[in-house]
Every structure is written in structure tokens, then in C-alpha cells.
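Lab notebook, bench 4. The sequencing result for the construct came back, and we need a structural model before the next group meeting so we can plan mutations. Quick request posted to the team channel:

Model the 3D structure of this chain.
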Amino acid sequence: MPDETTAVQLQTATAVEEESQVIVFCHYRATGPDQLIRIWSTTVLSDRSSSHESKLLFTDNVAVAPQWMHVPNGSTARFTLIFSGLPRSCTSFDLIERIPEPGGFEVRNIGRNKTDVYEVEFL
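Done. Here's the predicted structure in C-alpha cell form:
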């Protein structure tokens, strides 16, 4: 049976892993007039080597569906998405906006890094 110190260390390590977050800085460049964007709460990070999906926890500087945000032609919208943590075993993942219509944001095969902070550009 593990001693009390080992049990506390195990609990702490588990809590830290469960509390981890992934930050994604996003850039969307408008290439035409009247570009409207929004993010759906069903957006996830999908681990490419397991069935794990990290849920969207927080957004900053972007409209959340059903609201829309206008991005003028030629300008770039910059926004931040924060997700629940990925498993330690994850080495790459996909950002997928699961929506009931075409045109969801999607970035495939993002390589995992030690900081869990990423920048993506939506084309």
C-alpha cells in the first residue's frame, strides 16, 4: 500500500492533469466583402491517436453562435479559444468546429508542443 506522501503526490498529479488547458490563438483573414464569422460551442480538439476530445471552455474576441461577428474585407480577426486539456499521450490533434452546416472552422494535424499554446490561421 502506498504511503501517505505518495498518495498525495498521485492526487496532485491527477488534479494538475485534469486542470490543464490548451490555448489556441486564431487568425481569420477576410478575403471578400461582408465576411461573417462565429464559433460554435461544439468546437473541439480531437486527439489523433485516441478518441479523446477536449471541450471548448472559453472564447475571447469572437462571436459565439448564434451571434455573428463582421470582419471587413482585407482585415484579420484575431481571437482566442481555450480548451480543456489533452491527454499526456497526445502528440497531434485536430481543431474541429462541429456544426450542422458546411463551412466550420477546421485545422488538421496540429503538432503538440510542451506549452499547449498554439497559433492557427483559418483560410
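The longest strand covers residues 21-29.
Will bring this to the meeting.
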